[in-house]
Design a protein that fits this description.
Order of helices and strands: HHHHHHHHHHH
Number of domains: 1
Structural class: mainly alpha
Number of helices: 11
Helix content: over 70%
Oligomer: single chain
Length: about 270
Amino acid sequence: MKKNIVPLIAAIGGFSLIVYAIGSDGGTFAMFWSLSSVIITVIGSFAALLISYPFKYIKTIPSLLKQIFNEPSSQRLEIVEMFSELARKARREGLLSLEDDIAAIEDPFLKKGLQMVVDGMEPKTISEIMELEIDAIDETKSKGESIFRSWGELAPAFGMLGTLIGLIIMLADLHDMDSIGIGMATALITTFYGSLFANLFFIPFANNLKAQKEDELYTREMMVEGILAIQSGVNPRVVEERLSAYLTPEERLQKTERLRQPQVVMENE
């Protein structure tokens, strides 16, 4: 799977803009640094996250981060071509002839669906089982999205909590009026951290996982359409046209260009 460095570049770019804004207004990075504020905001919100979710979900965070920085593989064009070939073979030689092709398929979801077709299951039964599989994928993928979205909600809350702690400490001793401004600035840093982590990292991470989940579910629905079409003995050309409806305009253009390539070769010969 290819690496996707765009989120990393975007995060660095966003953080750099904040640093630039601080410097351009006469501030210094040291003014915005507070270890205790980081602990309250990040560690505190993570502690609340541990309370909110069973640990078996929390320990998936490293793999979720890895998923964010991996390029999602879109194989819809290849799926159209594969189902087109399988439909032709099934129409010509029968459904049992697909056994060897199924054995070579790596995707467990697709493999299971086609195997049920070869086993002679009813279309309604196949559809119900495949939909249950899709629901299970949706539930699993939604957990990761939910974790980061909750973290994005908790971080600003703990930032505000840190601010309240700072204000209480500051207002407990008002004898030194010159220190009130400095104390107020220090108290507000945790709110700054909470907003920063939530809006630059946690919520965008959740949105990224949601987009990847929706893309995968869309592809699974496409597979179900192809599986049922083969089971029903639909004309291979119709199967191809049905599945092509799931392609993006860019993928349809690639499909058209691939169809033209053999014609170009024949003309050159």
